[in-house]
Amino acid sequence: MKTINIPLHINDSKFTSSIDVFLKENPSIENKPLPTVIICPGGGYDFIASRESEPVALAFMSQGFQAIVLNYTVMQDGFKENFLHHNLLQVAKIFEIIHQNSKDWQIDLNNIFVLGFSAGGHLAASYSSSWSDFKDQNKQVNYKPKGTILCYPVTNFELGWPKNRNQFDFPISDTKEYDAIDKINSSTTDTFIWHTADDATVPVINTLKYCEGLSKCQIGFEAHIYESGRHGLSLATRASAKLLDSDNIVPNVAKWFPTCIDWINRRLT
């Protein structure tokens, strides 16, 4: 396995971001390219959650995937301006970088998935419906994910997160502009989504309303609502738990990962 950190440069933007590329040696005799997952960790748009970064990348690698973690712009980077739209550009940029390096990185361009946790789930869900805005940017690149995976996502800023607008260091004049539910359309990608029913940070209504939107637009989806579990469980296993923090190890919720792998495998071409 090898890892590569690549800064993302988008036009003349001052917003900083980078990707960590996790690559495994392809064990296939035929040397076939591997499916890939782009991971958008959570952190409330304030920081990048480490427990939803490398542990998740390694889990996917163990299942035969290449993995890319997006360290998108967050408030801890020191910016006082709204960077939310720019983060979508960062996701699109990853598809361009993958296209340029697919042979060296042994990546299957037809099987690229986007995954997001919490606020990163908001980013992933938003991209899932807006990828077509980038399709003429570079006509050689397919900006559409094969599917989207959302883990306890924020889908609307009026559904319990943030608790108040002071969460953000920058002004937001209209929260509707960032309503991932309202943006669902016929081009939105198939979605795997999960949440815990008693999530006290990002209420489960975010997932329920998003599923309703997917259903109305006849977008294929699979949803799992687990009875109990704190926010930010990540893999819900020892691999992603904080040291000696048993509250982050929930075997029943940890079933989301193998179930998700099964969902992905049914879509691989």
From TrEMBL:
Protein name: Acetyl esterase/lipase
Molecular function in Gene Ontology: hydrolase activity
Classification via InterPro entries: AB_hydrolase_fold, BD-FAE-like_dom, GDXG_lipolytic_enzyme
One Pfam short name: BD-FAE
Region forming the signal peptide: none
Organism: Weissella bombi
Keywords on record: Hydrolase
Limits of the BD-FAE-like domain: 27-204
